[in-house]
Model the fold of this input.
Amino acid sequence: MLFTPEMSGLLDRDRKRARRSIRPEAQDLVLAAVCAAAQREGIWVHLGSLAIARDDGKWANRAFVIDDHGEIRARYDKLHMFDVDLASGESWRESNAYTPGEEVVTVDTPLGRLGLAICYDIRFPALFEALGAGKCDVIAIPAAFTVPTGRAHWHLLQRARAVESSAYVLSAAQVGRHDDGRETYGHSLAVDPWGDVLLDMGGVDDGGTSDVAFVDIDPERTQAVRAQLPSLANRRHIAA
Done:
């Protein structure tokens, strides 16, 4: 199964310019090409996300899971909008253009049950509590993390989410300096349910570039961790 980053089709902070390339799902050229490639090569694809035009005039930051016949098995719209002012001077208002999703999404795949999240979602534990309660074997967190927040929190949050969900976390991430002037942190990661980093593809701090890497997922590892540390079974719901 192939995993790609957030905004695999278009990454442009100039929304007026980006609007010319953002289409409804049925007309999206990248989605059509990936579906055709998945069918041709006989592999599943988690298409990290695309900017998709909605009927209401706003956009969705939408992930897709595509099977080996080129059929879309699941869609997930990013739940949490990145509306922040960073100490570096960067200011982001994702909600000005995008409408947040409303649903937690899981889907059965050859890797087991896959839970879906996107980038900024990683900072909201309730989503991952829901994915853990859904007994996800793997959680995908594609991203285009900024460099300042990536340096501070990327590895920490990825490992924490894997541990609390007792699941593998696979996070394909944009890396490097982009034509629109932004710089993304990179460090695509694979983390196992114990929190061990199995794969780190590097980032802007160590010359990481766009590439393809491979990692094996062991379902027995997930079951062993859940037996040794049954936090999902022991979890209690506490009223505020």
User: Anything to note?
Assistant: The longest helix spans residues 147-165.
